[in-house]
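Incident log, support desk, overnight shift.

02:14 A customer reports that sequence design results differ from what the structure should imply. Their input is reproduced verbatim below. On-call engineer (initials T.W.) acknowledged and began investigating.
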């Protein structure tokens, strides 16, 4: 392989090379080379070169901090609302009710209602006094 070029002729090998994952611990060992275009960091880990989006990295960091520190509670709306969803979205929401509840969304299922109107929002998440709707 020539320096700075990927010369893999097997498509599966190329996909493998281009699909490498970086674990958090790897960032500690990266050598920062430059900042590019005021939003990207060019860095080196072992023999691999990485371009890191600073904005996306910051968002990921903030999201992880929020997940660790925030307490999710639920607050019922003044008037429970019927959720008008596509049939597929409604089926997914019913199937994943436990995940919705874990994140503060509580819904009731009205099996007699028309498809796409079977879910009623009973409670929505509140994180640090902010209601998410």
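02:41 Re-run completed on a clean worker. Output:
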């Amino acid at each position: 392989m020539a320096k700075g070029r990927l010369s893999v002729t097997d498509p599966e090998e190329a996909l493998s090379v281009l699909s490498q994952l970086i674990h958090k611990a790897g960032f500690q060992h990266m050598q920062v080379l430059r900042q590019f275009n005021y939003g990207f960091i060019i860095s080196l880990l072992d023999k691999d070169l990485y371009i890191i989006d600073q904005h996306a990295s910051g968002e990921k960091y903030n999201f992880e901090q929020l997940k660790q520190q925030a307490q999710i509670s639920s607050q019922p709306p003044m008037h429970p609302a019927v959720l008008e969803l596509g049939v597929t979205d409604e089926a997914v929401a019913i199937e994943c009710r436990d995940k919705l509840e874990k994140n503060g969304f509580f819904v009731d299922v009205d099996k007699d209602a028309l498809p796409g109107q079977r879910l009623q929002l009973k409670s929505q998440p509140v994180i640090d006094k902010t209601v998410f709707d």
